[in-house]
Amino acid sequence: MIHSLSLSDVLAEHARSRPQVTAVVDGEVRLTYPELDARVSRLADALATAGVAPGERVLWLGQNSHAVLELLLACSRLGAIFCPANWRQSADELRFVVEDLAPRVVVREPSDATAALTADTTLWVEAGEGYERLVASGSPGDFPPAADTEPVLALYTAAFDGRPNAALLSSAALLAHSVSLLVVRQMEPGFTFLNNGPLFHVGTMMFCLATLQIGGTNVFTPAFDAEEVCRLIDAERVTQAFLFGPMIDAVTKANTGGKYDLSSLRFVSHSAEWDAMITVDDSPWCRSKMGGYGQTEVGGMLTFLGLAPGAAGFAGRPSPLAQVRILAPDGSEVPAGEVGEICARGKTLFSGYFARPDLNAVKSAYGWHHTGDLGRREPDGTITFIGPRLRMIKSGAENVYPAEVERALKAHPAVADAAVIGIPDATWHQAVKAVVALKEGVEATADDLIDHVKNALASYKKPREVAFVDVIPKRGFTPDYDALDAAHGGGNYPGT
Amino acid sequence: MIHSLSLSDVLAEHARSRPQVTAVVDGEVRLTYPELDARVSRLADALATAGVAPGERVLWLGQNSHAVLELLLACSRLGAIFCPANWRQSADELRFVVEDLAPRVVVREPSDATAALTADTTLWVEAGEGYERLVASGSPGDFPPAADTEPVLALYTAAFDGRPNAALLSSAALLAHSVSLLVVRQMEPGFTFLNNGPLFHVGTMMFCLATLQIGGTNVFTPAFDAEEVCRLIDAERVTQAFLFGPMIDAVTKANTGGKYDLSSLRFVSHSAEWDAMITVDDSPWCRSKMGGYGQTEVGGMLTFLGLAPGAAGFAGRPSPLAQVRILAPDGSEVPAGEVGEICARGKTLFSGYFARPDLNAVKSAYGWHHTGDLGRREPDGTITFIGPRLRMIKSGAENVYPAEVERALKAHPAVADAAVIGIPDATWHQAVKAVVALKEGVEATADDLIDHVKNALASYKKPREVAFVDVIPKRGFTPDYDALDAAHGGGNYPGT
């Protein structure tokens, strides 16, 4: 008990330590930490009345709102699990989530898809007024502290087999991750974060929680709108928002002429115009252009480029609260310079997927979380992320990971996209075959590309054959290997 | 297992992530992280051979040395407990420590006092060559990871009853505290800490461990020597050393004429001369002149002034990984503005004192660690440290804490020192009596001082009587209340 610190505990401390600090801004809503604490207690009481016992789930289907943070904190106060899910999914996908998670309470914004959802044992609450009535129905009171090692947040991710899995994160993991962001981003009291990215994604949620931990201010806006982002940065003196590449360009464009004062934003250098509008920040996080390697299952970021100035590996070095090993399929550590699966241990790690005991056993083999991604230690000890593991080609005694060969192919100036498959080979069991889409108006022969890979990687990894196509078929962000195998003669994979 | 991160794990990660980084400098000794990792494995094996099983103790009696860090890390690798103790204690005090801790191995520097120590079941090793032979006798090998919640460091402190108690700190607590220092001091890779304060004190140890956690360089020197500190800062490009007040003046004096280049030191502003020699750092830690409240039992710092810019309370706000409550003796929370005991929960807290079950029960009453110190929440939520609790005076229904009244008395311009006792009172059970030493050549009457306290505190806290003395008798840093009671008629304390 003395060593436990839950999200609810952090809020209870802030209510005492920061009575005058604004915790939350959302449209007309402005809450100090004591006000947020009181609402969260009322909400927790109302949820408990609705049957949300420890371990039960509460689901949010809607845009960004301060209600997301309140529901998370109320679930922490109860020892329950909160899941903010993507409400723009298809009706079929939403039905899957509701059936999978079996939530006791669902708070939803109205849409055709969310309106179609039903479940007998669930209390359905409309976001907005319905939610406010729920909060008002609760009584403030004391709750026995819940252990910080119990899951409190569920985020759907990792659709290995076409359906997503809910990664469970405990308060201990979320706060360990938050404090690693405090270190790398050098966040200080007064930090104001604009939640303009989706809160069902760990990328936004992790900064929302770090801002909570340091006692800063979370500003919520339903979704990204460049003009509204400018207005809120100016009005709330925002320190950081969830912005990258094209979003930064859109914000820069929306502020042409300097209509809004964006100087409070301490962020990454991007363009001369952008840099002149904001304050370019020199924390390790911003200096390294927010680089690193992460996934929901490690709480967000596992490695940070900001902890590895001048690194050879563009994923940088592990968080101060995590360990990384590059492991072979048999659980042994592969030597530096060789490719294996990125595996992890540490304070920020998730507690497995909700209701997936078999998958959890596989993912935690040999006492290490297996990320499903391939990586390599460079000579300076830093880590390079190669790509998703997905499948392995066996050529003679050698393992060939498609992602590694694809990376090498894509580094060729003529290649727009590439995928690598294994084709049956009488002598070597399998041979490497590349499927390549060239850039428009640029030429390259199969031999050019084979030579290019041979120069970049060990010779046994080079393709024996190259097929040229207009477009590589995809499943989400990764090549559709089943379609590629069918179209280009793939087969004989190890384990099949 | 997947969520555990011990000091030994941090070292094992650095050996992979930072193969070229210097971990340790100590005289002629320079070790990279892989070299340190290999020595720690050998040492752990040698200690295991000497009977150091999980939970057994290893004692260091000597000056600062890289051996202190190696022994701590080797004990972490074994699940054992390491204690660096003050070797300059009297023979009687050292005997008490050896009897209390019953260490399996003692590494000692030669002195009359340490040479007199004996114990049958203990392996006695001489620091220096004897220690090197011990390391060389071990074989490098794998050790099953020890849980990070087990105690790994014991530091003697808290001599409540005249004899000290060994506060036990787990890897989890030490690393949580370290990461809070990384946040407030904004430490980055490349940080180089000069261990010139005693490593048996948490103030030096906490920066040694934070430097380890961020993968920086720890430089060891046997003890504080101003000229040697200058030389090492220059030679090793030291970022921070264990320096305050008079030590900073001594270093400034030793570097008169700018013999050494101290510009790598990023530290607290102190004097015009000092500021010109170093780089004044603007991290929250240095900006706030390293203020806060701490004790060994919370891992070092519990609150930081750097987390409370413009704070009313000079102890600032809690660490991002801890909670603080100001509690009454019955375990209830006292309202803001009132004095109570500073109590804490969180990731940085100790695991109790070694072999003190009764004391541990008292210190963790109501599920909160009781620091033994008095504090108050100010209107802005920040915390003021009042002074050690020690004893309480009961006047009518009111609790009067001597430390609070003493603080008020010492704020009077004529008062050099003050102590407050309770004297028997027929009506009110006890009355407050002040014992005061005035500054030389300054006058003040009893009425002056009583009026002064009445203006500063609630009237029932003002002294009824004032006795003037030349010097307040002390026991360590605090007034010797037994002597004061005997000399000035104290008695009738509640609970006696």
Overall pLDDT score of chain A: 93
Please state the oligomeric state of the protein chains shown: homodimer
Side by side, the strands of the main sheet of chain A go 2-1-10-9-11
Q: What is the H level of CATH, i.e. the homologous superfamily of the largest domain in chain A?
A: ANL, N-terminal domain
Can you tell me the CATH architecture of the largest domain in chain A? 3-Layer(aba) Sandwich
Q: Any idea how many domains of chain A?
A: 3
* Largest protein interface, residues of each chain: A-B, 58 and 58 residues
Q: Which residues of chain A sit in consecutive blocks of at least 5 with pLDDT less than 50?
A: none
Major sheet summary line of chain A? 5 strands, mixed
Percent helix among the residues of chain A?
A: 25-40%
Q: What is the count of DSSP helices of chain A, taking H or I runs of 4+ residues?
A: 16
Cα gyration radius of chain A (Å): 24 Å
CATH class of the largest domain in chain A: Alpha Beta
Count of DSSP strands of chain A:
27
CATH fold assignment of the largest domain in chain A? Rossmann fold
Kindly describe this structure.
Chains A, B: This is AMP-binding protein. Chains A, B: It comes from Nonomuraea guangzhouensis. Chains A, B: It holds the Pfam family AMP-binding_C. Chains A, B: InterPro entries: AMP-bd_C (IPR025110), AMP-dep_synth/lig_dom (IPR000873), ATP-dep_AMP-bd_enzyme (IPR050237). The structure is a homodimer. The relative contact order of chain A is 0.08. In chain A, helix 2 packs across helix 3 (about 65-80) and helix 9 (about 225-235) packs across helix 10 (about 245-255). By secondary structure, chain A is α/β, with parallel strands linked by helices. The radius of gyration of chain A is 24 Å and the shape is globular. Helices cover about 30% and strands about 25% of the residues of chain A. Chain A has three domains: about 5-225, ANL, N-terminal domain (Rossmann fold), CATH 3.40.50; about 290-390, Luciferase, Domain 3 (Luciferase, domain 3), CATH 2.30.38; about 395-490, GMP Synthetase, Chain A, domain 3. Chain A has 16 helices and 27 strands. Chain A starts with 6 loop residues before the first helix and ends in an 8-residue tail after the last helix. Chain A has a five-stranded mixed sheet with strand order 2-1-10-9-11, with helices on both faces. In chain A, strands 4-3-5-6 form a four-stranded parallel sheet, sandwiched between helices. At the A-B interface, helix 1, helix 7, strand 16 and strand 17 of A face helix 1, helix 7, strand 16 and strand 17 of B.
